[in-house]
Every structure is written in C-alpha cells, then in structure tokens.
Amino acid sequence: MTAMKTHRRRKCRHCGKLYRVSPRRREHQRYCGEAACQKVSHAASQRRWLAKPENQGHFSGPENVERVRSWRKAHPGYWRRAPKRRNALQDVIFAQPIDAQKDKSVLTQDALQDVISAQHALLVGVISVLTGSALQDEIDQSLRNLQTRGALILGKVPRIQSQ
Q: Which residues on neighbouring strands pair with residue 10, listed in sequence order?
C-alpha cells in the first residue's frame, strides 16, 4: 500500500493565511498566491537584491547613464503606445451617412411576417440584442436599414419595385 503524500502548508509572511506550498519551490516560497502578497514578495525580493554589495550602484553612475542612452537610441519608440493593429486585408471603412429616401413607396414593401420568417434566427436574435427590442416591426425596420446600408457599402443599388 502506497502512502499518500501530504501537502505541506505554511503561513504567508504577509497576510498570515495558510497556503499550500508548491513542491517545486518549497525551499523559497514564503508568500501565498494572493495579488497583494505577491506584490509584497516582489518588493522584498528587490530589497534583498539591492542590499547586496555588488548591486549597490547597478542603476547609477555615468556608465549606466550612457548604457541606457545607447539602448534607447537603438530602440526608438520602445515605450510609446503601439498603434492599433489593423486588418491587413481590409482598408479602414469610415461610417457614411445614409441619405434619407424621399419616396419610400418606391421601395419594395414585403409583408412583415414574410421578411421576419425569411431571416435566419441568429440574425433576428442579433438584431434584437442590438436594438434592445423583440418587437417584429422594429426588427424589420432594422433589417431594412442594415440591408440598405450594406447595399450602399457594396455599391449595389437597392431593389426598386416596378410600377
């Protein structure tokens, strides 16, 4: 019969709560995984590093100033905010106002139920979420507006009812 390994627990040096010690880091781990405790752990580690004699002047002195200057010169714009990534395969499309139709009777007006039932349920659901309404007449109007806008973006002329 194999004996079960017991997981050791320690008290966190910062918050005092008991935590499970990582078996790989048991010699070094003194703080739990909470964000505040990790921050304190990092600060303590930095203080220990800076207290060593060989690290006392690591960030000061003319040679370090020159080291930083040369690095910044070799890496221009490193700290600047990165530009927003654009999709390389598509140009930026700016919103274009849609001209109001003067004579709306010219456009095809299908029966409300026919338009709604012909649309995919997912599309109707998305439009319902975007408009915040489940009313069929509002969804229908949004569908028509989106269809007209899409046709204009793609350079297609909206369908006109023959008279």
A: 19
Total structural domains within the chain: 2
CA dihedral sign, ordered 127, 131, 134, 136: negative
Which residue range forms the structural domain that includes residue 143? 104-153
Q: Are strands 18-20 and 9-11 parallel, antiparallel or unpaired?
A: antiparallel
Task: State how far the Cα of 116 lies from the Cα of 137, in Å rounded to an integer.
Answer: 9
Query: Under a CB-based contact definition with an 8 Å cutoff, are residues 136 and 147 in contact?
Result: no
* In a shared domain, residues 57 and 110: no
Phi, psi of 18, rounded to the nearest 5 degrees: -80, 140
Residue 89 maps to a domain: no
CA–CA dist 33, 25 (Å, integer):
13
**Which one has a higher pLDDT value, 89 or 124?**
124
pLDDT in tens, 53-101: 988 877 788 888 898 899 999 998 887 776 666 555 556 666 667 766 5
Residue type, 73: K
Q: Tell me how far the alpha carbon of residue 76 is from its chain's centroid.
A: 26
Cβ-Cβ contacts under 8 Å for 137 (sequence gap 6 or more): 112
